[in-house]
Amino acid sequence: MEQNKRSPSLARKGRGAVTNSESHRFNLPMREDDGDWLDDRISLGDAPAKLRTQVTIESPKSILSFNQSPDIPFDRSINAYRGCEHGCIYCYARPSHAYHDLSPGLDFETKLFAKPNAAHLLRGTFAKPTYRPAPIAIGTNTDPYQPIEKRYQITRQILEVMLETRHPVGITTKSNRILDDRDILSQLASLDLTAIAISLTSLDRNISRILEPRAPSPAKRLEAVSQLREQSIPVHVNIAPVIPAITDHEIEEIVAAAAQYGAQSVSVIPVRLPHEVAPLFEQWLETHFPDRKRKVMGIIASLRAGKKNDPDFHSRMKGQGPWAELLHHRVAIAARKHGLGKAKFDLRADLFRRPIFKGSQLELF
Predict the structure, then answer these.
(1) For residue 268, what are the domain limits?
(2) Pair 347, 135: CB distance under 8 Å
(3) pLDDT at 149
(4) Predicted local confidence at residue 306, as pLDDT
(5) How does residue 51 score in pLDDT terms, banded at 50, 70 and 90?
(6) Three-state secondary structure readout of the chain
């Protein structure tokens, strides 16, 4: 049937979003593919050319972000980067780019911000007499091991501070680039100061390529699980997000693969579509899976109380209704079958020691 044909001419190779958002919440002018974007476009037939990644240096005055959300197991986090070159079309962090008058669409994955002073700011925070240690989450917004980490090494510098101060840290990533920091992570793990969560959305390389175009392949992520476990580093696999009618049939296979490669636990989160993510995701469906768009969005609505997104605590992570219940039931059965449990990473905070700055009196001891 004609409607089953994809529309690949709308997609840019190596990018997740089809376009920039047509509008966003802050009533700023609509962005179109003009101006500087035209400098990057060289038409080859009907296919748009690649877009260059741009990185802006950001110098924040603080680096820790605190939250009071009752449905996540940490109250503080660090984001070394804004935007993410992985280009995952489903990324719930995309709307944050609108605060910079940038689109949550292609801007989010091509116009990035890096914070090279992150480690310095972190040491300063830890040095304050009022600071009290508790696990810090890295990678909860944008991936700390996206491609530009190879050049900037900001995540590595942060981990060096964690090791120096014996501070607990949890990391979420979908990149095997985390293996570059095995030397630090193994030392942290030996002190019960770290645990890693590797995100897997699909084991199908073709699906992964269009869902998360610049993220490492599923095979590389599974290999990262194995190599981290060889270093006795705790590893959890998060099947996230599950996209109805596109990736949900892989649940049992992903759980089996996670166990085979050494993961200790698994969890699952259904897709979330906050703010500008919903229209971007629908456009992606229209481009790559037009025959399934209505079904996918219909199941998502059943998960989200009849809406495209549910922002409420607890239900936003789990979904609701029969489809959500079946999803979690399937994961629980598969996990039991393969001997996997729920994530229980009890990181220590009692080893913390404040950093010593050169020239301070503490340096004498």
Answers:
(1) 13-21+37-353
(2) yes
(3) 98
(4) 96
(5) confident
(6) CHHHCCCHHHCCCCCCCCCCCCCCCCCCCCCCCCCHHHHHCCCECCECCCCCCEEEECCCCCCEEECCCCCCCCCEEECCEECCCCCCCCCCCHHHHHHHCCCCCHHHHHEEEECCCHHHHHHHHHHCCCCCCCCEEECCCCCCCCCCHHHHCHHHHHHHHHHHHCCCEEEEECCHHHHHHHHHHHHHHHCCCEEEEEEECCCCHHHHHHHCCCCCCHHHHHHHHHHHHHCCCCEEEEEEEECCCCCHHHHHHHHHHHHHCCCCEEEEEECCCCCCHHHHHHHHHHHHCCCCHHHHHHHHHHHCCCCCCCCCCCHHHHCCCHHHHHHHHHHHHHHHHCCCECCCCCCCCCCCCCCCCCCCHHHHC
Give me the number of domains the chain comprises: 1
- Output the domain CATH number for residue 101: 3.20.20.70
In a domain, 246, yes or no: yes
pTM, entire model = 0.86
Q: Kindly indicate the confidence band of residue 23, based on its pLDDT and cuts at 50, 70 and 90.
A: very low
Task: Establish if 283 belongs to a structural domain.
Answer: yes
Nearest CA among 293, 236, 292 for reference residue 269: 236
Backbone angles phi, psi at 162, to 5 degrees: -60, -45
Q: Quick one: pLDDT at residue 38?
A: 33
In this prediction, residues 296-302 reach a mean pLDDT of: 98
Examine residue 257 and state whether it is found in any structural domain, yes or no: yes
User: pLDDT tens-digit profile of 230-249?
Assistant: 999 999 999 999 999 999 99
